Amino acid sequence: ELVSCVGWTTADELYSCSDDHQIMKWNLLTSETTRVVKLADDTFPIDLHWLPRSVGGKKQSQAESFVLTSSDGKFHLISKAGRVEKSVEAHSGAVLAGRWNSEGTALATVGEDGQVKIWSKSGMLRSTLAQQGTPVYSVAWGPDSEKVLYTSGKQLIIKPLQPNVKVLQWKAHDGLILKTDWNSVNELILSAGEDCKYKVWDSYGHLLYSSQPHEYPITSVAWSGDGELFAVGSFHTLRLCDKTGWSYALEKPNTGSIFNLAWSVDGTQLAGACGNGHVIFAHVVEQRWEWKNFEITLIKRRTMQVHDVINDAVDLLEFRDRVIKASLNYGHLVVSTSLQCYVFSTNNWNTPLIFDLKEGTVTLILQAERHFLLVDGGGLYLYSYEGRLISSPKFPGMRTDILNAQTVSLSNDTLAVKDKADEKVIYIFDAISGKPLGDGKSLTHKTEIVEIALDQKGLTSERKIAFIDKNRDLYITSVKRFGKEQKIVKIGTMVQTLAWNDTCNLLCGIQDTRFTVWYYPNTVYVDKDLLTKTVYEKDASDFSKNPQIVHFVGNQITIRRADGSLIHVNISPYPVILHECVSSSKWEDAVRLCRFVKDQTMWACLAAMAVANKDMATAEIAYASIGEIDKVQYINSIKDLPSKESRMAHTLLFSGNTQEAETLLLQTGLIYQAIQVNIDLYNWDRALDLAVKHKTHVDTVLAYRQKFLEDFGKKETNKRFLQYAEGLEVDWNKIKAKIEMEIAKERERAAASATVRA
Q: Residue 166 carries which DSSP code?
């Protein structure tokens, strides 16, 4: 009889249920098949779901019990040994689907009677969430277990468990919707219908991908655990797809319709329940990794092929167990199998470093130049390329099973993780110690964050993080968060995807229909007006809809289009060379390079870099080359200032750091100069506060204020200024004499300190 449902207990053991009332157990290691239990003759199984392995924070090595829904209106809680522990009358008519939430604390069932019900772990009814007029064929929990997605005819409905919260409903297919699935890592929704199409949606009901119509209705869809792949089943059809919708592979097995699909825990294999009484097993192979001149392919479950495209050399890498995850970057290949982790250097493929894994199922590998991160069900582990465990960062409410490359970012000294409980928060750790950075505060944004990325090069104290929020705005901020809070600055809008360069801090992204490279994103903290001049833009319309940046290595960017094809975009090599000159303080070489290239963008980058590094001579040349005459004049005026402190303060002012400039002047005892800075910026209240506090130059502030008001033909209305101006005659000669005295004093101090230094 037809097989209706399948479910994995471990990575190598599967249970299947059929209309012949039998539950079978399949062991893939020994190739044994045994009957677990024969159900009653009136029980026709429809859906099966194993209780999640991490229940109540305790992680079991394998699933212990499952829920089985059947055509007689009941669901059955059955142990691994096949004992029916409880049968519950749930719906009138067949119970068409049953799903545990990710914690295993609640069960959702749907039935032919159009009802959606929530049950406790022990099978007690908690609530009837919805009552439809038509049968509900499929149900899925939201990533946070706070919402439930279910089908209603041609509609998809997302209903929160909380009463009085808005329900989201939209028409998804032109035919009846048969299956749906919601992934907790990428938060995307799959739907399959009798209109012979499968579709991918985001969690707000926006269509991201719609397939061409197939010959037959799509009877099953399923996400892999890490949300990178999904599988589609139909009549004599099994398809493997990328999360963005395009197909990796199409198989035409002789199976009848595939009614149910289940991914193994490690995401390397797939099982399907077939209409002709078969159970189909499929293994994912031929994943590819590329870096510089190396191309690596997983040709069998335990064998990788390394191809060096320069000399056409081919190496085979054999593993003891099947390969689960791999990553190739920064001259190293990191491979995790079910029990071990292998680290290869691209210089030598023969002697990998091997160490044992605690947990087994690695869900994510991220690499930086000096170390790499493994993420598994138990936590985050940072290893050196010599295989030494460096640190294991933790944060409150950590759920590692839902992290992916968009929500975790690693650099040589910093690790950033986006919180899932509060999506506006990013936790930032010191990579070496595993402790929260700086004062231990997390980084908080005003709206939900979608994707994060740390820059890879430069000083630890200047580490930057770029992130895209829900509105698709791109922001940048500094991660070293001692003392003063760095501003979070917006540098782009409608940004779909981003990536930092691996050799220097260039940032690229796709904004709406423009491909953009920010040659020096730090410009926003130096001279915001320059930012638009330090950007390279190119039309991105030939990248198709929703392209994704795969990586940005050297001066080549790899972009994956919506149809799965890869495009390589090359940018000018000069910005990278400019970054290298500046990082080794070769300012003359940098100027020479800009003169040779004759590009305004390069001059603008050099101007910002020079100001950031307080090299005002180079900044003057660069600003002159891009025609910013007012800034050249200001830099010249800074040079004429008598003391080093004043020059530093005015350099800070140049970058818009008013507060820091004032603090520096006050700390070095240059009270008048601090007051004058505020007068020049028309910060009248602050200027008066300083004058009153230090009992000096109150008349200077009042005189400038009076002149300012006279120029605009206004009367004084501020009570504080009126109070201090009472009975005060403004004598400009006296004030000028006082100011000259202050400047002379500053010159004397500068000369004295120069003598001391000498």
A: P
Nearest C-alpha neighbor of 246 from the set 36, 553, 548: 548
Q: How far apart, in whole angstroms, are the C-alpha atoms of residue 118 and residue 91?
A: 12
Q: What are the φ/ψ torsions at residue 266 (nearest 5 degrees)?
A: -90, 0
CA–CA gap between residue 207 and residue 220 (Å, rounded): 19
Beta bridge partners of 159: 148
pLDDT at position 721: 84
pLDDT digits (tens, 9 = 90+) for 563-614: 889 999 999 999 999 999 999 999 999 999 999 999 999 999 999 999 989 8
Residue range 504-552, pLDDT digits in tens = 999 999 998 899 999 999 999 888 889 999 999 999 888 888 899 999 9
For every residue of 123-156, DSSP letters joined together read: S-EEEEEEE-SS----EEE-TTSSEEEEEETTEE
SS3 content of the chain, % helix, strand, coil (to 5): 20, 40, 40
State the Cα–Cα distance between residues 282 and 274, nearest whole angstrom: 13
User: What letter does residue 529 receive in the DSSP assignment?
Assistant: G
The predicted structure's pLDDT at residue 55: 46
Helices 671-680 and 658-667: crossing angle, nearest 10°?
Answer: 160
Residue 598 CB burial class (10 angstroms; 0-12, 13-18, ≥19): exposed
Residue 206: burial class (beta carbons within 10 Å; 0-12, 13-18, 19+): exposed
**Burial (CB count within 10 angstroms: exposed 0-12, middle 13-18, buried 19+), residue 550:** middle
pLDDT, tens digit, 9 for 90 and up, residues 336-381: 998 899 999 999 999 999 999 886 689 999 999 999 999 987 789 9
Place of tokens 């991490």: 54
Q: What six digits make up the tokens of 52? A: 């999640």
pTM of the model: 0.89
Instruction: Report the half-sphere exposure of 195 (CA within 13 A, side-chain side).
Output: 18
pLDDT reported for residue 569: 93
Domains identified in the chain and CATH numbers? 3-54+63-283 (2.130.10.10), 287-495+514-535 (2.40.128.630), 645-757 (no CATH)
Write the DSSP symbol of residue 673. H
Helix (H, G, I), strand (E, B) or coil at 492: strand
Element (H, E) at 110: strand 106-111
Residue pair 566/560 in contact (Cβ under 8 Å)? The answer is yes
Kindly report which listed range (48-57, 301-310, 549-558, 586-595) carries the lowest average pLDDT score. Answer: 48-57
